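[Help] Beginner question about ligand-bound structures

Sorry if this is basic. My supervisor gave me a protein sequence and a SMILES string for pyridoxal-5'-phosphate and asked me to "get the holo structure". I don't really know what that means in practice or what format the answer should be in. Inputs are pasted below exactly as I got them.
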Amino acid sequence: MKEEIAQLDRHNCIEDCILELFSSSDRALSIEREIDAIAEEFLRRDRISTNLDLGSIVEQFRESQISAETSDLSSYLKDLTENVVLHSINTYSPRYIGHMTSALPYFVRPLGKLMTALNQNVVKMETSKSFSLLERQVLGTIHRSIYDFAEDFYQTHIQKNESTLGVLTTGGTLANLTALWCARNFVLGSKEGFTGIENEGLTAAFNAYGCEGAAIIGSQLMHYSFDKAAGLLGIGEKSLIKLPVDRDRRLNLSALRQAIQTCRDRGQRIIALVGIAGTTDCGAIDPLLEMAEIAQEANIHFHVDAAWGGPVIFSPQHREKLAGIEMADSVTIDGHKQLYLPMGIGMVLFRNPYLAKNIEKCAPYTIRKDSIDLGKRALEGSRPGMVLFLQAALKIIGKKGYEFLIDEGIRKARYMADCIRKQAEFELLVAPEINILLYRYIPQPWRQKVAAGQITELDNQKLDRFNECLQSLQLQTGRTFVSRTTIEIDGRPTIALRAVLANPLTTESDIDAVLEDQLKIAAQIPTNDEEVCR
Ligand SMILES: *Cc1c(COP(=O)(O)O)cnc(C)c1O
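Answer (accepted):
No worries, everyone starts somewhere. Holo just means with the ligand present. The predicted complex, written as structure tokens, is below.
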């Protein structure tokens, strides 16, 4: 009897506890304020992270049992703050200048709450209605910023069921994949006696078109999302042709002409030519105009990966750098990079509003043929109303605001490059085309040799190890941060420090502080010892 009552009690508690989670009570409001305070406190910290190394916090993340009982929210929050939030990275820090992630405008946080609260699913109209229309509208706006077609064009296509001006994705990776999926299905589409690659697969497609495989062409600096795309689309990573770049890290055009010819000679069908507007490693911009002309002449789909550099179109002073982007058949832009939006917003825009018909799918219970459902022409299924952030930013920051942000990033990158040129302790490896620059630290014993251009392979190996060590010590010290990459210089893979000047909060004195911090850390690293940093 006693046992039964206890069981009943527990049952009632579960019911009350769980149902309370779904209602908006005073308690819910107070928890919300508590969470806001956690975020505020985290963002006010002037350190980039704790100086604990990964090895010592990994132990806190080994438990794999689900909690058997319901738990009290406050104790959950305490645990979250101490174990997870504390060891996160403060990407808002003005001295965190190593990656493509930075501070966000304040309006995105409350809007995020609204988006989560409304819980719209833009996969179909029945779960989103206005949000689906909004997404089409906003993608139309970005489309117009790139292609600038006539008002008529946008009036016709922006909400027309058969048209797709763009697809919103969770990031640049999926945007690139979506673009190439469209291109593949177009290039190996249906024709007499063949219903298309999407339906019949690669072997049948190659037979139908009498070709020996397919290829995607771009520079060796293409983002690794193209390797993923080549694998997923079935053409194979080996068929992703990576061409050499010139000294300015832009695709070599004569290598491109040669590669197109080689593909033709081998009977390889070219799915797409990829131009990069802002490489991930150093922000270089391919000769888009020349590439567009070559693609047009050879009748090849031209895709521009502007995940990073796309928003440069908003700067009248610098947009010339992207000349030719308006000739692209498809363009990728990331919202969570230089549009200063939270993670999870990428997009691909299409010159031809009917291109995405090549990936169209329908399902009897949801995505119907005659509906305007966004899930119909998209790689992803269920998606949240992330477009809200994009709409807000385009309205609130606007063209002038983005112009300012882009121009400032470029100005600050040039400032940092000048500082580096002036200091014998540093060597500028790649000057910024936009707002990314590559450099390295040169310890005292090598400075004269570097100045005289007499660095040997052995010297370079030591400089590589020194810079690797400097960068990881800097991360662990946690006061300032730049990232690191490997770039080919005179045919040799070289370790470089990488600064990304994209945080609006970063000032010239923050840049000075980052370099000074590096001098301080470098002074503690021995240069003659083989055991450096080990
Ligand atoms: C960041 C980036 C990508 C990938 O985007 P994600 O949003 O990380 O998926 C692709 N290409 C370039 C040039 C990038 O900078």
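A couple of things worth pointing out: Residues 100, 171-173, 176, 223, 225, 276, 278, 280, 305, 307-308, 334, 346 surround pyridoxal-5'-phosphate (CB under 6 Å). The longest strand covers residues 492-500. Feel free to follow up in the thread.
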